[in-house]
Design goal:
The protein is mainly alpha-helical. It has five helices and four strands; from the N terminus they run H-H-E-E-H-E-E-H-H. The chain folds into two domains: 35 residues; 106 residues, Orthogonal Bundle (NinB fold), CATH 1.10.3790.10. The strands form two sheets. Strands 1-2 form a two-stranded antiparallel sheet. It starts with 11 loop residues before the first helix and ends with a helix.
Length: 150
C-alpha cells in the first residue's frame, strides 16, 4: 500500500515534523521524497467558473461548421490551450461497434488547471477576463472573486 505524507512548510512545527520525516527516510532508505510547488487553491478554482460560465452563456463557437453555445468545460479546454500558446491537442474519439473504432470524430484535450501553480493562477484568471472582454462577454464579479487576483 502506497503511503503519502504532505507537509506544508508554513510554521516552525511543520518544519520540525518535515525534518523528522526526512531523518526517518534517510535511515530507512526505501522511500522517495518529492518537493513541489503548491497548486491553485479551491477558492482560485471557484473564481474561474463564473467567467467560463458567462462566456458559455453569451458566446457561440464553431462546432462542425455550425455556430453554437458550448459548455464551460469546453471553453476551458479551448482557452487553456490558448493561454499556454499551444497547438490544440486533438485526440480521435472512440466509437464502439465499428470496424475502425476511431471514426467517431475528434476531441480537444485542454490543460488541467488543477496542475497550475498557485502563483500562476492569478495570471490565468487575468487571461480569462481579457478573453471574455475581447469576446464581448460581461462577467459579474464579487469582491471575493476579485480577491483571487491578489
Amino acid at each position: 500500500m502506497k503511503q503519502s505524507i504532505t507537509i506544508k512548510l508554513d510554521s516552525e512545527d511543520a518544519k520540525k515534523r518535515a525534518h523528522g520525516v526526512l531523518e526517518e527516510i534517510l535511515c530507512d532508505g526505501s522511500k522517495c521524497v518529492e518537493f513541489k510547488a503548491e497548486t491553485r487553491t479551491i477558492d482560485q478554482n471557484k473564481a474561474q467558473w463564473p467567467i467560463l460560465s458567462s462566456i458559455s452563456a453569451q458566446r457561440k463557437w464553431p462546432i462542425d461548421g455550425e455556430m453554437m453555445l458550448i459548455d464551460p468545460d469546453s471553453w476551458k479546454d479551448i482557452l487553456t490551450a490558448a493561454y499556454r500558446k499551444e497547438v490544440p491537442r486533438v485526440a480521435k474519439a472512440f466509437s464502439l461497434g465499428t470496424q475502425n473504432n476511431y471514426d467517431a470524430g475528434s476531441v480537444m484535450i485542454g490543460q488541467r488547471t488543477s496542475k497550475f501553480k498557485r502563483g500562476e493562477f492569478p495570471e490565468w484568471l487575468e487571461y480569462l477576463n481579457a478573453a471574455a472582454a475581447e469576446l464581448g462577454v460581461k462577467v459579474p464579479m464579487s469582491k471575493k472573486q476579485a480577491a483571487m487576483y491578489e
